[in-house]
Amino acid sequence: MKSFLSSWSIKPVTLGRVFKICLLLLLLLFTVSIVSLFVGAADITLITVIRDLLPLGADGHKALTPAEKSILLSIRLPRVILAGLVGAALSMSGVVFQALLRNPLADPYILGISAGSAVGAVTGILLGAEGLILGISGMAFLGAILSVCVVFGIAGTGRRLETTTLLLTGVMVNAFFSAVILFVFSISDHLQLQRAIYWTMGDLSLADGQAVLYAGFFLFIGMAFIYRYARSLNILATGEETALQLGISVGKTKIILLTAASLVTATAVAASGTIGFVGLIIPHIMRLIVGPDHRLLLPVSLIFGGAFLVLADTMARCLVSPAELPVGVITALCGAPYFLVLLHRRVSP
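The structure assignment produced for this chain is given below.
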């Protein structure tokens, strides 16, 4: 198996190969999404939906009831789409952070983005921000942006951005915001506390058409922008000195990509809460299979990350049905063992 993956990953990256692999993964994403649509507490089958699209005799009655249509189109479909978008965004951001920071443990939350977003969200829950224009998601996004501004403001020196300083600043900002979150928890009542904790573990249950539209628009722009720098990421991976010799403005490129990945992560977290391990393990899995070339690694991580989170959210809905688990619990249960095995293989002689 290992030799097969090695031979697969060293094949040259061509447009045809990128298209074929992405098409295969899109088929996987489509299959997982269809399964997710028809799995849940309400028994709605694909055959029933197909029958509903066709007239059933002279009376013209449809197979789906209004309640089933509402469940399918207003609850499950937006949730599946949002899960795919968030999984894609976190996976692609994880690729960028691991490449630029040259740290295999880097994930989209390494700069304190999740903690800042959580501060905004739990503060919004405490203040009852659902009735405001911004809402909980807007407050979460502002909190994430605040954390990004603080980290870059402290770590940035002119046009330079030292990796070590950036990581240490992210750790400290994350620790500070985590303390703020604990303080907010301590002054919240029972219902507010339950909702806030659920949000910090990842919550896609409130997905609706408006959330999907807003998140999809900004995530699509951000991910398309990042992909434009795929060749630059390949050059930076060879070393900053080599990149400078090849005409890459290292400092400027790092700032642009880290900012873009941070904004993509902030949008994803604002829409879904904190969902761990997706941006950490998916890039590792895809890098093992297709190799380190970012012209291929970025799109396959995007698609596979979306499929993975759709599947994880389906499991979260079904394992303790009719109750639900936070999707972050499922991603942690899947991701933590894999990452420990991966770490053991790296340190073993």
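Interim note for the steering committee: The chain has 15 helices and two strands. The mean pLDDT is 82.
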